[in-house]
Each structure stands twice: as structure tokens, then as C-alpha cells.
Write a structure and sequence with these properties.
By secondary structure, this protein is of the alpha+beta class. The protein contains 4 helices and 15 strands.
Length: 245
Amino acid sequence: MKVKTAEQVFLFRKNAYQRDAEAEVIAITEEGGLVLDQTLFYPTSGGQPGDSGAIEWSGGRIEIATCMKTAEFAAVLIPAEPVALPPVGARVTQHINWERRHKHMRVHTALHLLSVVIPKPVTGGQIGTEKGRLDFLMERAPGEKAELEAAMNRLIGLGLPVTESTITDDELAARPELVKTMSVQPPTGTGQVRLVRIGPPDTQVDLQPCGGTHVANTHEIGEIRLGKVENKGASNRRVNLHLMS
């Protein structure tokens, strides 16, 4: 059974803090993945890992190891082990691993701020539960690590709101400076691109296209520590970031 990706609803885009939701199984892949009509589970993309959690239905419960995109589906839930699955048409209840998701949200938002204190093009990145990193297009180290760390913690401590809006494909094309990432381009073609803003609109510190999940206020990130600054080529520096708690 093939289902157009447009038929799937991403609940995490509507509310990144929602932890449980009902859904209907609309397909089972040949590899044994579950496809739901609406999903809380974020699919691996943009350096952010897919969510884990569990699915319950009248006939049982299974653990979900991750969620991923495929050529056919926008989000496929991958069971942690091969077990009996609910049939197509079954009503299920989704439960995401909230502690893991929230740490991804904290790290992801912190990386946006890292791109503020180091205003260089981003060539890559990765998000984890305790740490994350960005790769920057630059020939030399970004400066005194202690100063950059202090600047980031000052921004976090301001308690800046993190909000979203949309921009049209044409508007984004006219404002290429909004796209900081060189390796991952924002999805276009639907007419609307999601923007994530940090700070009030009149005094924002960051605005960029992003499809990931973020905290609602920078206070939630908590104190961070900058780790190693690694040389990854003649014009590439990797900056690692760690959550302190």
C-alpha cells in the first residue's frame, strides 16, 4: 500500500510538547515499519535523530526505536525488535520518549544560538541528547572559547521566546541570508517554508528556516559548555556543545 506523504500529519510541528496522541495505521512497509496518518514522532533529518517511544493498541504494545523518512513516506516508525504489528486500519496511541525529545529540543535550540555567536556559514551539524555540534566554513578557530561560551549563556539567560512563522518560497529566494546551512537546504516546493525565530520580532537574535523541534524559551536550554574546537579541513572547524544538566 502506497500513501502520499502529504496525507501524513506531523503533530510535532503543531505542538512540540505533545507527548501522547491517537492515530490510525495507514500502511506497513515491507521492512516492518509502521506508517500513521498523524505522528508525534520526529523523523531523522537535518542532523536531529528520530524520536523513540512506544505504540499501544487493543492487541498489544511495541517499543519504537526511531522514526525515519523513506522515498514513499514522510515518517515511518521503526520497531525496536521484530514483533507482531497492529494491522492497517487499527487505532493506536503514540507515546514519545519525552525526556529524550526535550533534550533534543534543548540542544537544537542551543545550536541555533551557536550560529549567532559564530556568524559563519554552517557546513554540517549533529544533535544528541547531551551534546551537539556545528561545522563552520572558516579557516581559523572562532576565537576565545570562554568568550563564546559566556556569550551563549548570556543569550540563554535572557529567556528569549522561540517562535515560528512561515515564508513563501519566493520570499526565501529573495532573502538567501536567512539560510545558514550549506549542506542542508530548507524544503521548498510546497509554497511555504517554516522559519524559527529566537527573540521578539523587533529585537530578534536569530531567524532561519528549520523543520526541527525547539524549546519555547531559551531558559529551558539551561547552562551550556563549549567543548572541543576541531580542525576538519583547510576551511572547516567543528565546534562541540554540551548541556550541563
